Amino acid sequence: MTTPVLLTPADFPSWTTPLGELLLDVVAGGGSLGFLDGLTRDEAIAWWRDLIPAATRGDIAVWAVRDTDGRCLGTVTLGFSAMPNGRHRAEVRKLMVHSAARGRGLGRVLLTTAERAAADRGITLLVLDTETDSPAEGFYRAAGWQRVGTIPDYATDPAGVLRPTTLYYKHPERRTGTAA
């Protein structure tokens, strides 16, 4: 399995198409990522393209994995707080694994990459939300994330049905004696 690559602002534009195609695959499979059925390829690519300024400013960090054919197999994003009282925390966003790459541990590799990068940056608190009762909940619990609570009718799934979301947090472990 390939190691996730941190996308630099210079790299990001060349990744928007593969990332958009990954987003389409995950939404088509029912992934609750904030998008609805009918998402087009152009819309998915444009969504990623619109993140380039945030990546350039350092507001987000995005890691991705491609296969040998250039297809994006997975990604994860960390969103950093812009407020002075929140610089110790970050949000894990848009952890996605392509349907053809599931079940091989790529999601765990991506999550671990984000957690380690956060700790190396001095982040002491990570947060995320995910659709309640989705397979992602078991994945995050197995990775040591702590459930905070559930908000009813928080967002719709791709089919437009209101679903609850569950909030999670984790204190990333600082590594000692390792290269960053």
Description:
The chain is α+β, with helices and mostly antiparallel strands and 180 residues long. The protein has a domain of 123 residues: 3-Layer(aba) Sandwich (Aminopeptidase). Helix content is 31%, strand content 30%. Strands 1-2-3-4-5-7-6 form a 7-stranded mixed sheet. A hairpin with a 5-residue loop joins strand 2 and strand 3. Helix 1 packs across helix 2. The chain is globular. The model has no long low-confidence stretch (mean pLDDT 93). This is GNAT family N-acetyltransferase. InterPro entries: Acyl_CoA_acyltransferase, Bact_Acetyltransf, GNAT_dom. Keywords: Acyltransferase, Transferase. One of its GO terms (molecular function) is acyltransferase activity, transferring groups other than amino-acyl groups. It comes from Streptomyces tabacisoli.
| Assigned CATH superfamily of the domain at 5-127 | Gcn5-related N-acetyltransferase (GNAT)
Helix share, percent: 25-40%
Ends distance? 20 Å
Number of alpha- plus pi-helical segments? 5
Number of strands: 7
In which order are the strands of the major sheet placed?
Answer: 1-2-3-4-5-7-6
Unreliable residue stretches: none
Q: In sequence order, what are the helices and strands, one letter per element?
A: EHHHEEEHEHEE
Shape: globular
Strand percent estimate: 25-35%
User: Would you tell me the structural class of the helices and strands?
Assistant: alpha+beta
- Looking at CATH, which topology of the domain at 5-127 would you report? Aminopeptidase
Largest sheet: 7 strands, mixed
Global Rg: 16 Å
Protein name: GNAT family N-acetyltransferase
Keywords: Acyltransferase, Transferase
GO molecular function, one term: acyltransferase activity, transferring groups other than amino-acyl groups
InterPro entries: Acyl_CoA_acyltransferase, Bact_Acetyltransf, GNAT_dom
